[in-house]
Amino acid sequence: MKITYWTDFSCPYCYIGDTRLRKAIESVGAEDSVEMEMKSFQLTPQAGPKPRNSMVAGMAKHYGMSLEEAREKVDRISAEGQAEGLRFRYADVQSCNTFDAHRLSKMAFSHGKESGEKMNEKLFEAFFGDCELIADHSVLRRLAAECGFDCEEVDEVLSSDKYAREVMNDELEADSCGIYAVPFYIIGRYGVPGALSEQDFAELLRQELKESGEFAKAPEGSSCGPDGCVLPGK
């Protein structure tokens, strides 16, 4: 069974959703039955190399809420991540452009699925757990080195536009499919907008392992888009 998913390293529900999905795959014993393909998506392509506001202040401005209300929202999202066993410090993240991080991910996947997933996990951990600036090339070089990648290859990528076309093609594909918020998963015949619970992911996987059919619509989960992060029905 093929699972295609769009994700961004600065999206809290991408980190949460991708983690839940992998837990669900393991819980139904589908590790050898599932092929996963990650697609790049920039949640805020207009973002610069450095953060302009703190996450709390930025959310307060975006939603027109008080700093206290924004802090509560940020803390709720962090609690969701922590409940999945993740180091999650959403209030302290350094929001920035993720284009080069995605290019580095593409480089990693060129070495195989295991290498790509290792790099992705390192990028998510750096952003949400260590609150590092993942637009900074020195940070990206160190993270790649920690994953065992050759420094010369990493420098070649970061000093050029290598893998830029691959990232942009993923985003064009998302646009053509009407995908404007992430995470978004195509699980067999189901289009899944947002981070479902581990249990809901597992149920979809069980259905798809038993059945086949045309593309269908699944329940809606939490996601992040141009207008911010939202919960289904709110």
Label this structure with key terms:
234 residues, alpha/beta, Glutaredoxin, 5-stranded mixed β-sheet, two-stranded antiparallel sheet, 12% strand
Question: Would you kindly provide a written description of the structure presented here, covering whatever features stand out?
Answer:
It is a single chain. Mean pLDDT is 93; it is low at 213-217. The protein starts with a strand and ends with a strand. The protein has 9 helices and 7 strands. It has one domain: Glutaredoxin. It has a 5-stranded mixed β-sheet with strand order 2-1-3-4-5, with helices on both faces. Strands 6-7 form a two-stranded antiparallel ribbon. Helix 1 (12-27) runs parallel beside helix 3 (67-83), helix 1 packs across helix 9 and helix 6 runs antiparallel to helix 7 (151-158). The chain has helices at 12-27, 55-63, 67-83, 99-109, 113-129, 137-146, 151-158, 164-176, 198-210, and strands spanning 2-7, 35-40, 184-187, 190-193, 216-217, 223-225, 228-230. By secondary structure, the protein is α/β, with parallel strands linked by helices. Helices cover 49% and strands 12% of the residues.
Gist of the model:
The protein is built from 9 helices and 7 strands, in the order βαβαααααααββαβββ. With about 230 residues, it is an alpha/beta fold.
SSE topology sketch:
Elements: E1 2-7, H1 12-27, E2 35-40, H2 55-63, H3 67-83, H4 99-109, H5 113-129, H6 137-146, H7 151-158, H8 164-176, E3 184-187, E4 190-193, H9 198-210, E5 216-217, E6 223-225, E7 228-230
Parallel strand pairs: 1-2, 4-5
Antiparallel strand pairs: 1-3, 3-4, 6-7
Helix pairs in contact: 1-3, 1-9, 2-3, 4-5, 6-7
